[in-house]
Amino acid sequence: MTTKNITSIVTKDNRFSLKSELLGRFFILGIKISFFLILLALLYSQVFAREDMNFAALWNQIKNNLGTATAPLLIAVLLLMPLNWILEVQKWRSLMPNHAELTFFNAFKAVLAGLAVSLFTPNRIGEYGGRVLMVPKSMRIPTVWATIVGSFSQWIVLIVGGGWALVLALAKGWIDIHPNLLYLSIVLATIVTAALLWMYLNIQTMVGYTMRFKWTKKLAQTLSKGRDTPYSGTTLVPALGFSLGRYATYSTQYILLLLFFGFQANIASMLLSVMIIYFLQTGIPLPPSTGLLARGNIALLVLGWIGTAANTSLIILASTFGLWMINVVFPAVIGGLFLLKATPLKKPLAESL
């Protein structure tokens, strides 16, 4: 083959490679744009097209209740929103292995991207996919590990906190029950708390146990290979602390919004009610975007027991919807923008940051 022919073949190959790369980039860009538009359409349908509560109704409620005495409450809720996600970012970073040195900003983008994707999936399963898209291929398994453990720690806080809040509510006589049932609920809450904490602090053992079952064996083996060393208490306990911090943050936000809209009840009862609401909401296997109505109904059921204002139902719905707007919608839109601009890192994180 002559030099001229060889040059011609190389030139054609380069053109073909360039054309394929451009088509691939346009295809990926098209997917990203489509996802972002679907995200906006979904949020629009949930924010503006709701019959029970929409953004216009929420805005009217805010204007009607905004005053010198109530403005600090709303400002505090808004200021606590970034704290909520900062704690989630720090929790996730603390659970990543040492060789995955994520900067705070890159971790922040990954967490919000995961939130955006999770709006479409039950129990926020999409968080895994959203975060994985923001890290290099070599770090995908550690990312899934850190997300699983972090979600488990948050779930434990919700279950344990809400369970004991329910026990206290029963002890306060919110529902008339036989004393023996109250004692039984205390024993049950103690057993569940101890069991969940043991499972969390021995999570590597739990993964090994799941290898016995056919439907979880492959995933467990994959995850086990993705960790250099098992999680220890020095890593798990701080992560649980971050989860407690988030729990305290968004519970405080909820109470502040209830007070802002004029909910009338003592703070202790409101705190117990909010903890019970989160406890009951944890069992709803619905995406955050479509499960808002169910969550609103749970809030109406629980808070309705203690509210004394004439327009209690409207106040509860406005507070629930407002918290969802502040803590989920706004951060999810930002996460969608991060996904739109994202180019998955190809180099190890330590070299890329």
What keyword list fits this structure?
single chain, 353 residues, mainly alpha, 2 domains, globular, disordered C terminus
Number of strands: 0
Q: Indicate the radius of gyration in whole angstroms.
A: 24 Å
Q: Kindly report the oligomeric state of this protein.
A: single chain
The residue ranges in which pLDDT falls below 50 over 5 or more consecutive positions are 345-353
Judged by helices, strands and strand pairing, the structural class is: mainly alpha
Compute the average pLDDT.
Answer: 79
Helix content: over 70%
Distance between the termini: 47 Å
Strand content: under 5%
Shape from CA axes?
Answer: globular
**Helix/strand order, N-terminal first:** HHHHHHHHHHHHHH
Q: Tally the helices: what do you get?
A: 14
| Total tally of structural domains | 2
Q: Report the sheet with the most strands, covering strand number, pairing sense and barrel closure.
A: none
Folded structure, characterized:
The protein folds into two domains: 1-49; 54-352, no CATH class. It has 14 helices and no strands. The protein has helices spanning 3-47, 55-65, 71-95, 104-118, 126-132, 140-171, 179-201, 203-210, 214-225, 233-260, 267-281, 292-303, 312-341, 349-352. α8 crosses α9 (214-225). The radius of gyration is 24 Å and the shape is globular. The relative contact order is 0.14. Residues 345-353 have low confidence and may be disordered.
